[in-house]
Amino acid sequence: MLVIPAIDLCGGKCVRLYQGDYSRLTEYSADPVEVGAGWARRGARMLHVVDLDGARLGRPVNLDAVGGIARRVGIPVQLGGGLRTEADVDAAFAAGVARVLLGTAACENPKLVAAMVERFGADRVIVSIDCRDGIAATRGWLASSETTGADLAAAMMDAGVREFVYTDVSRDGTLSGLDVEAIEAMLDTGARVIAAGGVGSLDDLWRIAPLAARRSAAGGCLAGVIIGRALYTGAVDLGEALTIAEGRARRNEQAYHSMSRH
Questions:
Q1: Active site annotation includes 8
Q2: Domain 2-260 adopts which CATH fold?
């Protein structure tokens, strides 16, 4: 299971939102390239970059910063946010990213997703399913579709998509923990899933680690977890998270149960 640090870009800076609310923005660094290099030095094997301005405006905005990150870090970078046309996807790949994430396009223009999968391959075109109360959100989480996350995943798999980033919008940036039941429901569709939204402690990784060790009856598997605010606040140490995700740590159950009672 990959542990993937998140870098959210707004105005060229590294920020985090609370539940996707642009009015509740915390700036962490004016140098996102150095932030990305720092996560790579600490052992990250992939970065998750979101162009928040792009998501809101419907077109890529921060590609200069994205390109700087991609050139510097030496590990794959996946990019989402505002990629809604073939030209947008071309521009993202030209900036140096390894994978693109299509979210709004998956709901509003599924033919584009199918065409991009056919052109670039299912290992480079990922669909981002961002749900609020089980319904897929669109346009930078400022609008809502009429499609459930599970139904969207099924439709996208028919279009050739094999991997998804699943985010619980209501938990994103809150440090309140992942929605494990929702993640399991996504795995039951047969999808390969990267979970996001709400990681607040190492305990959240312990909770989902068993999902990474098995496949669902439909063949779905947990490929990774994206962590944002918890890394920036220090609530989660990347090295310790990697140790858990890669199966190199054993849980102290006695200490865990003691902690859980408080």
A1: yes
A2: TIM Barrel (3.20.20)
